[in-house]
Amino acid sequence: MTKDVRVRFAPSPTGPLHIGGVRTALFNYLFAKKHNGSFILRIEDTDQTRYVEGAEQYIIDALNWCQMPFDEGPGKNEKFGPYKQSERKHLYKEYADKLIASGNAYYAFDTSEALDFHRKDHETKGKTFIYNWHNRLKLSNSLSLSTEEVKAKLDAGDDYVIRFKSPQDETLHLKDIIRGDIKIDTNVLDDKVLFKSDGMPTYHLANIVDDHLMKISHVIRGEEWLPSLALHYQLYQAFGWETPEFAHLPLILKPTGKGKLSKRDGDKLGFPVFPLQWIDPKTNDISRGYREDGYFPEAMINFLSFLGWNPGTEQEIFNLEELISAFELERVNKSGARFDPDKTKWFNHHYMQQQNNDELAEAFQALHSELSEIDINYISMVIGLVKERATFISDFWNLSHYFFTTPTSYDQKASKKAFKEGTTELMTQVISIINNTEDFTVESLQTEIKGWITSNEISFGKVMMPLRLALVGALQGPDVFDIIYMIGKTETIKRIENIITSL
């Protein structure tokens, strides 16, 4: 790629960052790193009425947790700053004025009541009201009014907006990296508002001006912005600026495959749609996050990468470096990507197996006060025995509680299956063997007990099932001899004696 790659992720701080936004950030990040470019965070907060306290920091924290730190952005490497649109508002009026001077935009003084009247009038006639070439000369704007009338309204402080003057009878030929060539008839476009009399630009103007001044080379954003592509393309032309390349990502769909994934879907089906937990500052309502639900950031990145992108191979597990190497915008699909909650768990299970046992042990210990006095090395060894069955750290207790506490009850169905006539005598023999095993290792225990079973021609099930039940309280868990070694000789004998007494 000949030009410097500079991409931006430009969320609005109106609440928590949806995973659709995280996926957009990820694809921008992967593309930038693939081409040794820059990943920029810009906060688009021109609409201050929708600003939510804490949302901006949430966005930054989410990107950092997802291992996608920005190269430029608020408070970091601000060579094209500031990176908050609310701190750049002094810039936009100048560019709006340039469009008026070049004839590409105009003042519009229509009141909301007048526009509402026209909309309703069109509706009664079965039509849709569009403010553009076919009616703008009949409305209250600087195209239909005299220069003196316009000046008088501006001097009087009348409310106005600045609208883009969309051309008539033209065909726009646009290009999208993902969707290919797109043709647009300008007659169906409306004259979008670019600037308001309160001194704030709309998204359309601020977005284009900022992308140009920040030298953005590629605009990679969600499909919902595709209808705005024609206007944005025309604005670049109107200013005489080089147009960046565009790529519009497909929607993330509900698990059913129908409709855009929403928070309600997550609440209904029991999975988060935000990377981090969010506490609404107004209502104190808590929304679940992937981090707090026990997902690893590597798992989240991996499953998000497959929502709309296909590497063209059978490989599914990619670390971040592998994703950067494999990622191509041309391999992003046009159609929506169905979200699969079970697949996200599958990825997390995989990454669980890659985690360091000592770190997992510390996290597990922090979750359970009853483990606070237990040696962390012992907990780490337990984790090593059970984590292949775990998807989340929160799974560890159910998988390993018998390593830390003596069973006080036994699974009823398993008890009937394991304890038969003669079982008590067999368990008494096992106690004797364990007592007499001087070299208390997994290998020695296995050799002694299995050797005794074989030499006496006893069915393995008659010994191993009740033995496991005594140790665990159920017919589950890792290898019996690993459990015996971990809990020790005294505790093992105690548990076997307990089950003999109980059953």
TrEMBL record:
Its main location: cytoplasm. A motif ('KMSKS' region) lies at residues 260-264. GO terms for biological process: glutamyl-tRNA aminoacylation. Residues 362-500 form the Aminoacyl-tRNA synthetase class I anticodon-binding domain. Its EC number is 6.1.1.17. A motif ('HIGH' region) lies at residues 11-21. Residues 5-346 form the Glutamyl/glutaminyl-tRNA synthetase class Ib catalytic domain. It comes from the Bacteria. It catalyses: tRNA(Glu) + L-glutamate + ATP = L-glutamyl-tRNA(Glu) + AMP + diphosphate. PROSITE patterns: AA_TRNA_LIGASE_I. CDD domains: GluRS_core. Gene3D superfamilies: 1.10.10.350, HUPs. GO terms for molecular function: ATP binding; glutamate-tRNA ligase activity; tRNA binding; zinc ion binding. ATP binds at K263. It is found in: Cytoplasm. Keywords: Aminoacyl-tRNA synthetase, ATP-binding, Cytoplasm, Ligase, Nucleotide-binding, Protein biosynthesis. Catalyzes the attachment of glutamate to tRNA(Glu) in a two-step reaction: glutamate is first activated by ATP to form Glu-AMP and then transferred to the acceptor end of tRNA(Glu). Belongs to the class-I aminoacyl-tRNA synthetase family. Glutamate--tRNA ligase type 1 subfamily. Monomer. This is Glutamate--tRNA ligase. It comes from Flavivirga aquatica.
